[in-house]
């Protein structure tokens, strides 16, 4: 431990980020910063100093002013049988959580789904969006821009600009929205196996530089909240964002009664009054029971940006009778995720992706991310089915008393 550097960090002579430049390695810089913070706050941070990721990589790509890591318990649910276009077979589901009862509940749902023949799932749309806002010189110019971005000629020029920034991304379309002289351009990209927010941002900047040369406009902000990234928004539910995915399972009546201790009619009523009427009365964007629980647990385990749980929770859970059996579905309009970039390269997260068979880029490109979307959607369905079963059988409080304390 370089005591001189620690003292300078404590005194403020060196700023926290300058530890990287003064230490012999980034790992040492992490240790020096942690020791300085420990002394400044009179706190024992020894457990935060225990981690397995490579600081030489993580502190360049994933975090600044690193002092260590916070550990989240990781549980496993499954096997869960999935019958998707990309995810086919039995999967064990990694769930990083501190909520007792969650893994047990999802595990029960996985068992019910597998006993019923598995979850059928499909990715219906695959695109990441970024929406710059510009101020046009006149209303006429705003209209001209809105009309022009729909033409094949300008679209090809914009796609060429995008190709200068990435070998993987592709501009799919541009949707204009005019508010006075403000024009919001919602650009949609195919980002292959990446979640793609950084890719879309850099590509959008290139498109805007092109448009500034062709129109009387001024770029106000590269992100305008029409994307919409990490915030509740109806546009994501209507238009979709990330991997738009739908999962369903047909649970035989006998299995519902034996495994969930309720009838299909009971689950349909709970879903109707809770997820539909209750959500409508609350004006909620989430017409589901607890999709965010599973999405968050899998995102943390698999190196996704946890803030995208906001969009991932915009799901609609549906339950209906099908010849006396239970047809159960969960639809995800906006499920942003990827298998390359971000936190997917960290050691423990990479292992979870490997466990699911989706680590790194897929062949063909984009297939691994779509496979992960199918798995997340299917696991979320299992969680929904189990929780609604617990509610229908009046068993929720007992389960939480057993597992959650």
TrEMBL record:
EC number: 1.1.1.34
Pathway: Metabolic intermediate biosynthesis; (R)-mevalonate biosynthesis; (R)-mevalonate from acetyl-CoA: step 3/3
PROSITE patterns: HMG_COA_REDUCTASE_1, HMG_COA_REDUCTASE_2, HMG_COA_REDUCTASE_4
Broad class of enzyme this protein falls into: oxidoreductase
A Pfam family the protein falls into: HMG-CoA_red
Assigned keywords, A-Z: NADP, Oxidoreductase
GO molecular function annotation: hydroxymethylglutaryl-CoA reductase (NADPH) activity
CDD domains (UniProt xref): HMG-CoA_reductase_classI
InterPro entries in the cross-refs: HMG_CoA_Rdtase, HMG_CoA_Rdtase_cat_sf, HMG_CoA_Rdtase_CS, HMG_CoA_Rdtase_eu_arc, HMG_CoA_Rdtase_NAD(P)-bd_sf, HMG_CoA_Rdtase_sub-bd_dom_sf
Cross-referenced Gene3D superfamilies: 3-hydroxy-3-methylglutaryl-coenzyme A Reductase, Chain A, domain 2, Hydroxymethylglutaryl-CoA reductase, class I/II, NAD/NADP-binding domain
Catalytic activity reported: (R)-mevalonate + 2 NADP(+) + CoA = (3S)-3-hydroxy-3-methylglutaryl-CoA + 2 NADPH + 2 H(+)
GO biological process: coenzyme A metabolic process; isoprenoid biosynthetic process; sterol biosynthetic process
PANTHER family per record: 3-HYDROXY-3-METHYLGLUTARYL-COENZYME A REDUCTASE
Family: Belongs to the HMG-CoA reductase family.
Name of this protein: 3-hydroxy-3-methylglutaryl coenzyme A reductase
Protein species of origin: Methanocella conradii (strain DSM 24694 / JCM 17849 / CGMCC 1.5162 / HZ254)
């Amino acid at each position: 431990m370089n005591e001189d550097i620690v003292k300078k960090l404590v005194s403020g002579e060196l700023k926290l980020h300058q530890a990287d430049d003064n230490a012999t390695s980034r790992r040492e810089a992490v240790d020096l910063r942690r020791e300085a913070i420990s002394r400044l706050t009179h706190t024992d941070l020894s457990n935060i100093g225990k981690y397995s990721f490579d600081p030489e990589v993580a502190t360049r790509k994933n975090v600044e002013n690193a002092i260590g890591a916070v550990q989240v318990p990781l549980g496993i649910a499954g096997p869960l049988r999935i019958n998707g276009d990309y995810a086919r077979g039995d999967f064990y589901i990694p769930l990083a959580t501190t909520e007792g009862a969650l893994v047990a509940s999802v595990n029960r749902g996985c068992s019910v789904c597998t006993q019923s023949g598995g979850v059928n799932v499909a990715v219906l749309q695959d695109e990441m969006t970024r929406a710059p806002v510009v101020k046009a010189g006149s209303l006429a110019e705003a209209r001209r821009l809105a009309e022009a971005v729909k033409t094949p000629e300008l679209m090809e020029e914009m796609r060429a600009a995008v190709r200068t920034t990435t070998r993987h991304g592709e501009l799919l379309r541009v949707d204009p929205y005019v508010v006075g002289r403000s024009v919001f351009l919602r650009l949609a990209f195919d980002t292959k196996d990446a979640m793609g927010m950084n890719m879309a941002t850099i590509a959008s900047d290139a498109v805007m530089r092109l448009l500034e040369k062709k129109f009387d406009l001024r770029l106000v902000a590269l992100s305008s909240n029409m994307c919409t990234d990490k915030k509740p928004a109806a546009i994501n539910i209507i238009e979709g964002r990330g991997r738009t995915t739908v999962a369903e399972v047909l649970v035989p009546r006998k299995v519902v009664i034996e495994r969930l201790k309720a009838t299909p009619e009971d689950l349909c009523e709970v879903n109707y009054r809770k997820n539909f009427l209750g959500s409508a009365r609350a004006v909620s964007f989430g017409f589901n029971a607890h999709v965010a629980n599973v999405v968050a647990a899998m995102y943390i385990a698999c190196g996704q940006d946890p803030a995208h749980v906001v969009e991932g929770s915009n799901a609609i859970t549906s339950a209906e009778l099908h010849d006396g059996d239970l047809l159960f579905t969960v639809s995800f309009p906006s499920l942003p995720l990827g298998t390359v970039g971000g936190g997917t390269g960290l050691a423990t997260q990479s292992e979870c992706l490997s466990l699911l068979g989706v680590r790194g880029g897929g062949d063909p490109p984009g297939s691994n991310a779509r496979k992960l979307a199918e798995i997340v959607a299917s696991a979320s369905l299992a969680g929904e089915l189990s929780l609604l079963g617990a509610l229908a059988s009046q068993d929720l409080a007992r389960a939480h008393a057993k597992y959650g304390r």
